Structure formats: structure tokens, C-alpha cells
């Protein structure tokens, strides 16, 4: 079991950055779908989660091939690229996801409660409005470059691994 948290102070600076980060993680997951399929068949599991303070990478499975899967994820992260069609598809999906959160009273109430309790949190309404105002491909590219330049990493490795 390998878990790394790539933390960046850039994410919580604005609602635009939070939305750009969500878009970035979703495109990264989309890009990894095909190359990581063989790892899935080999019973290796991976998950990329857009956390509040950064990207959480979780990988688990048999230890002899786990580093290859982790390296694949890191390679796609470091050489991040996307097409305008994928960008449009992911932003449309995010619009639907944000809207579905807003129309459910229990998730909206949770969002409002956390907005009150947590300093520097952006509401789902802010994120949805930001997305509806439109994002540009150039802003995503600039955000990804800045994100990768301001990273702090925390990691945990458990299991049958050598140091």
C-alpha cells in the first residue's frame, strides 16, 4: 500500500484555483485510463483524489509491480498534457457534478457547514459560478505549471517493501 499526498498552497488561494485543480485531476485520471488498464487486470489498484490541499495518490497491490504503476502515474503527472476536446468534456462533467451537489439538500447543507467551520474554504456555489463563467485552456496550463513548482510531499508505504 502506497499513499502520497502532493500538497500545494496554491489550490486554496481562490475558487478558480480549486476548479482548475479539480479539472486537472479529472483530466489526469482520464489520461491514465488506458495505460493503467493492464495494472487493473493484474489486480493492482490506484486512485487519484483531489483533496482540499492537494493530490492524493493511492496505489495498492502486489509489491513486485507496484513501483511500475506508481512510476506511470508520476510520469503522466510530470508530462501532463491534454487536448481541447478532453478539456471540454471534463469541464462539462464537472458542471454536472457541481450542479448535482447543489440540488441535494444534504450535500449543500454539509458544504455550508464546512464553509462556516473551515477558514479559507470555497463554497460549491463559488466553484459552480467559476466554472459557468468559463475556464480557458491557457489558465489550466498555467495552473498546472505553478502547481508542480510549489509542491510538498508526504508519503506512506506499508507492506513488503525494502527501504
Automatic annotation (TrEMBL):
Domain of life: Eukaryota
Keyword Metal-binding: yes
Record InterPro entries: Metalloenz_LuxS/M16 (IPR011249), Peptidase_M16 (IPR050626), Peptidase_M16_M (IPR032632)
Signal sequence bounds: none
Pfam family for this entry, one: Peptidase_M16_M
Domain Peptidase M16 middle/third: 1-129
GO molecular function: metal ion binding
Keywords: Metal-binding
Claim: Metal-binding is one of the keywords in the record: yes
Protein name: NRDC protein
Organism from which the protein derives: Centropus unirufus
Gene field: Nrdc_1
